[in-house]
Write a structure and sequence with these properties.
This protein is α/β, with parallel strands linked by helices and about 500 residues long. It has 14 helices and 22 strands. Helix 1 packs parallel to helix 11 and helix 12 packs antiparallel against helix 13. The mean pLDDT is about 95.
Length: about 500
């Protein structure tokens, strides 16, 4: 086909959020261009193992799902976003019901069995493949793989297109859906390319970022020296897996919320102990039936048997609650520019995401964002009531600010100073080595710099952000910190209503 020069909607990213946005817009009659930097089934969505949360059981309600989401979110959720997420869940998964198995799973933080899953621990892969199949067949969608977007084009302050592979493509609206930034950490469950490119594009276009200090560490990643971390799904613990020490003794409740469990494992390992995830007490045929895909991945990665061997585990950076600040329709504060999925910070996930709400957010907010992008007036943009905060001034005497850092070295620095637990000394050390966000030359350094400064500024512990020097939550910090490019970097604070 001939590549059109412009589209009604341009979507950057081909994961669950991007494809959901593209399909909804195309179903409404819009022409859609989907651009992705790598292969169409790369990125975070196909790696998701656990499932999609939705109150579809006879004993469940959307309000109970919302209550669980708010409980885990540690007081930082936008209640309106949570209401949208949970009330629209049933409709969103209903359109894909043939993708999921009939039985519902249980995961940490959920009061009911409400996890839809597919593919024996390969829910993200199965769901992404189903969405991609529909997109490939849709006459209104053009897909451009291996076509990285390097800039959002602006005209009079409005997003009007993108620049990709030496070509400009016009768009009446742009949706960024490129995933999070957790691959910046050395120990990460993410695809290597998940390094915050969408946030970089939004920052350069003038949009604000928020909550970058809130990075969720999955407590149970397979930990084999010299090998990449492999996510061992929350669903394993939901189905009865135990966490054992070197004496084969259970040492922690495996169904604690992720942030609490990650800290417990971090402290256990830091004290010199071992941690193993074990399904040895469960019938092997049950494990193989429910987690066939994951069992194969574990065998390939380590030679271990999911059903019969104790699996060494450690926390690893997994999911980012922070991102491009949006309202509940995906609007950023730049007209014509939208964001959805893990790229966005809508407030739905709060300070700590409830398990299996991530793919759900992609489905629900991907579709909503497309609707808003097609419906909005040209000058529509999100606005928030905020007040100024002092800029963090790292002590630059001890370290030299670097203009570039090897990705491996940066990841190790983030693991050390911006990991499961942080403190002022480590955060000062990290911030001092990183450039001012206004002058950051790359996505890696921008995100690391903003995240370090936000974590240093937030003098409390809340959800996935834990300061050993400020171990308790503080009501004065019940809100999100916004950062926006400008002549002077001065973060602003948006209070969250109870």
């Amino acid at each position: 086909m001939v590549e059109p020069a412009s589209f009604d909607l341009i979507v950057v990213g081909s994961g669950a959020a991007g494809l959901s946005a593209a399909l909804r817009a195309a179903d409404l009659g819009a022409s859609v261009g989907v651009f992705t930097a790598g292969a169409l089934l790369a990125g975070s969505s196909p790696r998701a193992q656990g499932g999609v949360a939705a109150a579809v059981g006879a004993d469940d309600t959307a309000s109970q799902h919302a209550q669980d989401t708010l409980q885990v979110g540690a007081g930082l959720n936008d209640v309106r976003a949570v209401s949208v997420l949970t009330s629209e869940a049933s409709r969103s998964v209903g359109a894909l019901r043939d993708v999921f198995a009939r039985d519902l799973g249980l995961e940490a933080g959920h009061a009911r069995r409400r996890i839809l899953h597919a593919g024996g621990g390969a829910t993200g892969q199965v769901l992404s493949s189903a969405l991609l199949e529909r997109a490939l067949a849709h006459p209104h969608i053009a897909l451009f793989d291996h076509t990285p977007v390097t800039d959002v084009l602006l005209a009079q302050g409005r997003a009007t297109g993108v620049f990709a592979e030496h070509h400009a493509y016009g768009g009446n609206a742009i949706v960024l859906a490129t995933g999070g930034y957790a691959a910046l950490w050395a120990r990460s469950t993410n695809a290597p390319e998940t390094r915050g490119n969408g946030l970089w594009l939004a920052w350069r276009a003038g949009a604000g970022l928020a909550d970058l200090e809130f990075v969720q560490f999955h407590p149970t990643a397979l930990s084999i020296p010299g090998k990449p971390s492999l996510l061992l799904s929350e669903a394993l613990r939901g189905e009865g897996a135990l966490l054992l020490d070197e004496r084969n003794q259970a040492f922690v409740d495996p169904l604690l919320p992720r942030d609490v469990l990650a800290r417990a494992l971090h402290r256990h390992l830091s004290a010199g102990h071992k941690a193993y995830l074990s399904l040895q007490h469960l019938p092997p045929e049950t494990v193989e039936h429910h987690f066939a895909n994951l069992a194969g991945a574990v065998r390939d990665a380590s030679g271990l048997d999911l059903a019969r061997d104790p699996l060494p585990v450690a926390p690893a950076a997994h999911y980012c609650m922070g991102g491009i600040r949006t309202d509940i329709w995906g609007r950023t504060d730049v007209p014509g520019l939208y964001a959805a999925g893990e790229t966005a910070c809508s407030g739905a996930q709060g300070a700590n995401r409830l398990a299996s709400n991530s793919l759900l957010e992609c489905l629900v907010f991907g579709a909503r964002t497309a609707e808003a992008a097609l419906r909005d007036a040209p000058d529509a943009a999100a606005t928030w009531t905020t007040h100024s905060l002092p800029e963090v001034a790292p002590n630059l005497a001890a370290e030299t600010v670097i203009a570039a850092m090897d990705p491996v070295a940066l990841g190790q620095q983030l693991d050390a100073d911006l990991g499961v637990e942080r403190n002022a000394a480590g955060l000062q050390r990290l911030a001092a080595r990183l450039p001012d966000p206004n002058s950051a030359p790359s996505a890696d350094l921008l995100i690391a710099s903003v995240a370090a400064r936000a974590a240093l500024l937030r003098r409390e512990s809340r959800g996935a952000h834990f300061r050993t020097d400020f171990p308790n939550p503080t009501s004065t910090w019940r809100g999100r910190i916004h950062w926006r490019r400008g002549p002077t970097l001065r973060p602003v604070f948006e209070e969250v209503s109870p």
